[in-house]
């Protein structure tokens, strides 16, 4: 009774998403990840422009977003997101199906810890390594980018993702967990993209 409007306005989209996910989980995961990374990159580019574009327009104190927009940067983000979608989906299925003990909250805490200790540093290394590699960096430069970004991003992830992951395992249906985390991930992907640009600027 506290939700404004007819209840079907809120439940119908989620039910439709659940049905599509059950029929074509991989397609839904890839499309969802592509949308998440697209919005995350657009937010990040509005905050921190690409170095080359920033240098070209350094004489202007305020440049329009479209003038500073870097399509190649967006393409890299979409490639990284689409490649990671299915492995990430299987990882969270693995967590959902395992580490289930008599204590519900004890199980959730363990899942959160495993995710933070195992998955997060691996994913962040993949994200920043791919960002650097797809930009044409050498293997040594890729390693440097990972060194400059992964420890900080992993530390900051503890401020957000344990709560999001715990809430997801506790209250969100399996097929909707990716969608729920994806909404939060728009802001997180923007943060990672900004951190990557700052590292690239420092390295340059």
From TrEMBL:
GO terms for cellular component: membrane; mitochondrion. It comes from the Eukaryota. The chain crosses the membrane at residues 26-47, 75-96, 108-128, 176-195. The keyword Cell inner membrane does not apply. It is found in: Membrane. InterPro entries: Mpv17_PMP22 (IPR007248). It is a multi-pass membrane protein. Keywords: Membrane, Transmembrane, Transmembrane helix. It holds the Pfam family Mpv17_PMP22. Belongs to the peroxisomal membrane protein PXMP2/4 family. This is PXMP2/4 family protein 4. It comes from Tothia fuscella.
């Amino acid at each position: 009774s506290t939700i404004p409007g007819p209840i079907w306005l809120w439940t119908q989209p989620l039910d439709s998403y659940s049905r599509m996910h059950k029929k074509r989980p991989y397609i839904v995961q890839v499309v969802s990840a592509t949308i998440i990374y697209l919005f995350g990159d657009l937010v990040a580019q509005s905050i921190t422009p690409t170095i080359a574009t920033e240098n070209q327009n350094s004489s202007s104190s305020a440049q329009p977003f479209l003038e500073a927009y870097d399509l190649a940067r967006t393409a890299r983000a979409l490639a990284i997101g689409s490649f990671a979608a299915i492995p990430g989906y299987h990882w969270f299925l693995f967590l959902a199906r395992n580490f289930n003990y008599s204590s519900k909250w004890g199980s959730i805490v363990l899942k959160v810890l495993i995710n933070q200790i195992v998955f997060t540093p691996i994913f962040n290394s993949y994200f920043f390594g791919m960002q650097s590699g797809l930009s044409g960096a050498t293997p040594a430069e890729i390693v440097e980018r990972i060194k400059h970004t992964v420890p900080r991003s992993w530390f900051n992830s503890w401020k957000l993702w344990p709560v999001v992951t715990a809430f997801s395992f506790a209250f969100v249906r399996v097929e909707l967990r990716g969608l729920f985390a994806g909404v939060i991930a728009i802001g997180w992907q923007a943060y990672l993209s900004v951190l990557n640009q700052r590292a690239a600027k420092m390295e340059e």
